[in-house]
Amino acid sequence: MTGEGCRDGEFTEPVEAAPARHAPLAENRPHLSAVLDHTPTDPRRAELAFDAGLRALLTGFRASCPVTGLHGHTHPSPEESVMTASFRVLTTGYADARVAGTVTLVIDDETVAIVDPGMVADRRLILDPLAHSGLAPEDVTDVIFSHYHPDRSLNAVLFPEARFHDHMAVCHEDIRENRNADGYRLSPSITLMTTPGHTAEDVSTLVTAVEGLVVLTHLWWSAQGPADDPFVLDREQLRASREKVLALGPALIVPGHGAPFVPSSSTPV
């Protein structure tokens, strides 16, 4: 597990909807927002901070409801389509002498998702920021894997109530629902998109946030590179997936092993 768990990237786009697990928070929904901190004091621990309205919402958000199944996907109404999700980087990854993955919290109404809960120096780097957001591990409704390398999945066990999403299925306890991840919608503002490259099974998560479209992916390890993924088997496949994501015009990219960055003409494809 040397560089393999080092740096990744993936993104996603809209199409289907997964079941909700918590009581609706419709009256609070307009207050959800996140602000990117562009001046982190520690480049390995760059954060996305929630605003006061979201903090107030999360502080009271602790009651959970039983799982009703893995089905029940719905198409969003016009009103839901304009809603935005809030996201926060719980811990920022890195890949050098040691390896850790970037782990992100995304909240869209009653959906509370963790993306890529993989390798970190200490589990408290995931759990403490989650607690500061007013959430317990049991409050997490969904976990998304960009792929199954340890740096993406090692700490999934922290979230016992969650549904687990990969490129081909949604799983909870002993229930498995096969489905194609491409265009699968977890909520009105969270969609998956298949983006093979780092692995053939890679998935990116597309989040419609107040910042604009935010793509959580392992197509890029970090803003600093490498331009070419040293573990990729099909370079043209990686290029095609990167171009697919950039064509969406994302406001931010959350890479596999680094802080969020604004894509530009210099972003490698």
Would you identify the CATH architecture?
Answer: 4-Layer Sandwich
Note the total helix count. Answer: 5
**Overall pLDDT confidence:** 78
Q: Fraction of residues in helices? A: 10-25%
Helix vs. strand class: alpha+beta
In the CATH hierarchy, what is the class? Alpha Beta
Radius of gyration: 17 Å
Amino- and carboxy-terminal Cα gap: 25 Å
Write down the CATH topology.
Answer: Metallo-beta-lactamase, Chain A
Order of helices and strands: EEHHEEEEEHEHEEEEEEEHE
The CATH superfamily turns out to be Ribonuclease Z/Hydroxyacylglutathione hydrolase-like
In total, the number of domains comes to 1
Number of strands: 16
Spatial shape: globular
Strand order of the largest sheet: 3-6-7-8-9-10-11
The main sheet comes to: 7 strands, mixed
Q: How much of the sequence is in beta strands?
A: 15-25%
Low-confidence stretches: 1-81
Q: Which helices and strands appear, and what pairs or packs with what?
A:
Blueprint: E1 34-36, E2 48-50, H1 52-59, H2 78-81, E3 86-91, E4 94-95, E5 99-100, E6 103-108, E7 111-115, H3 124-132, E8 142-144, H4 150-153, E9 163-165, E10 169-172, E11 175-178, E12 185-187, E13 190-194, E14 203-209, E15 212-216, H5 235-246, E16 252-254
Parallel strand pairs: 7-8, 8-9, 15-16
Antiparallel strand pairs: 1-2, 3-6, 4-5, 6-7, 9-10, 10-11, 12-13, 13-14, 14-15
